[in-house]
Specification:
Layout: E1 3-7, H1 13-25, H2 33-44, E2 49-56, E3 59-70, E4 75-84, H3 93-107, E5 113-115, H4 121-129
Parallel strand pairs: 4-5
Antiparallel strand pairs: 1-2, 2-3, 3-4
Helix pairs in contact: 1-2
Length: 146
């Protein structure tokens, strides 16, 4: 697996939208080009966002996106999303992508990474094997507006 990494540039948006749609729609999603573009634009245009693209040759096969959070004495990173092409899942591509993010963030003296994920076993196993653990301090609060 010969992988390269690039930070997001607007010229990659079409490839990013295509990957997003195909990966999520392969598992029952109903993303359109418009809704995927809007979702991705919201993150890529955010101040202090970081979008890391994973390439195999000339093909975009994965990405992750999030943003830096400034605090009084340090900076953290919120990982909003990590995605690997459906046909490449469970082969180490997501792990490689996460490890590249961690390397970049250490270089930038980032203090931590935080994220929300489901309690489903595959997600817990993935993050657990990389040393992530549940917070004892943070609780997701939710209000259903329907």
């Amino acid at each position: 697996m010969r992988l390269t990494y690039r930070l997001f540039e607007p010229k990659f948006m079409d490839a990013l939208v295509q990957l997003y749609r195909s990966a999520y729609n392969a598992t029952g999603g109903c993303w359109t080009t418009e809704t995927a573009h809007r979702r991705l634009h919201q993150i890529t245009s955010m101040e202090d966002s970081l979008v890391l693209l994973q390439w195999e040759g000339e093909r975009l096969i994965g990405f992750l996106m999030g943003w830096f959070k400034q605090f009084d004495d340090c900076r953290g990173f919120y990982l909003e999303e990590i995605l690997v092409a459906a046909e490449r899942r469970n082969r180490g591509y997501g792990s490689a992508l996460l490890q590249e993010l961690e390397r970049l963030l250490r270089q930038q003296k980032c203090a931590w990474i935080e994220l929300l994920t489901t309690t489903e076993e595959p997600h817990q196993r993935f993050y657990g094997k990389h040393g992530y653990s549940r917070s004892n301090q943070l609780v997701l609060e939710y209000l259903d507006l329907k």
